[in-house]
Amino acid sequence: MQYTKHYSSPLGNLLLAADEQGLTGLWFEGAKYFAATLADDHEEKDTPILEAASRWLDAYFAGKRPEPFQPLHILGTDFQKTVWEILRQIPYGQTTTYQAIARQIAAQRGLDHMPSQAIGSAVGRNPISIIIPCHRVIGTNGSLTGYAGGVKKKAALLKLEQAYTDEMFIPEKEELAA
C-alpha cells in the first residue's frame, strides 16, 4: 500500500509517496510524469517515512545540506535505477552532464557508446525529485534543460545549492522541443 502527503515548498506544492519499504515518489504538482509510479490504490496518511521526508525537505529548502535520505523504495526499470543511483552520487552544489553519465554507464557495461538521449529519458522519469537530484544534470553546453518540474524550478534548486552560474542558461522554447 502506498501513502501520500502534500508538502508546500517555496517552489510550489509537492506530492510525496511512500510504502512500508521507503519513499517511492516526490513530484512537483503538474510536472511531467506527475505521480507516474503512484499506485491507483493509495491513501493520504502521514507515515514516519513521509514525516522524515518532510523534515529532509524543510532542511533542504532552508539552505542546509541534509544527509542522503533513507529509506528509498525506487520503482523503475533496471536501467533507470542505474541512472538514478548515479544521480544520487552527484554532490550537493555540483552538477554533471547527461553526456558524462552516458560515458560512465557505457564504461560500466563495457560499451563504446551510450546515447545521451537514453540518459535524458531516465533522468526525466526520476520518481523522487530533489532527493534523487536530477536537477543537478545539465546540458554539455551549460543549458538547464530536461527537468520534468520545469527549467525555472531547476534553476531555483541549483541557485539554492549555489551551483547555478552565469554561464548556465535556459534554452529558448524552440530548443526545448528539440
TrEMBL record:
Keyword field contains Cytoplasm: yes
EC assignment: 2.1.1.63
Domain spans labelled Methylated-DNA-[protein]-cysteine S-methyltransferase DNA binding: 78-162
Pfam families found in the cross-reference section: DNA_binding_1, Methyltransf_1N
Note, other: This enzyme catalyzes only one turnover and therefore is not strictly catalytic. According to one definition, an enzyme is a biocatalyst that acts repeatedly and over many reaction cycles.
Any one biological process term the GO annotation gives: methylation
Residue stretches making up the Methylguanine DNA methyltransferase ribonuclease-like domain: 5-70
Keyword terms of this UniProt record: Cytoplasm, DNA damage, DNA repair, Methyltransferase, Transferase
Superkingdom field: Bacteria
Main function: Involved in the cellular defense against the biological effects of O6-methylguanine (O6-MeG) and O4-methylthymine (O4-MeT) in DNA. Repairs the methylated nucleobase in DNA by stoichiometrically transferring the methyl group to a cysteine residue in the enzyme. This is a suicide reaction: the enzyme is irreversibly inactivated.
SUPFAM superfamilies: Methylated DNA-protein cysteine methyltransferase domain, Methylated DNA-protein cysteine methyltransferase, C-terminal domain
Family membership: Belongs to the MGMT family.
Catalytic activity from the UniProt record: a 6-O-methyl-2'-deoxyguanosine in DNA + L-cysteinyl-[protein] = S-methyl-L-cysteinyl-[protein] + a 2'-deoxyguanosine in DNA; a 4-O-methyl-thymidine in DNA + L-cysteinyl-[protein] = a thymidine in DNA + S-methyl-L-cysteinyl-[protein]
Protein name, per record: Methylated-DNA--protein-cysteine methyltransferase
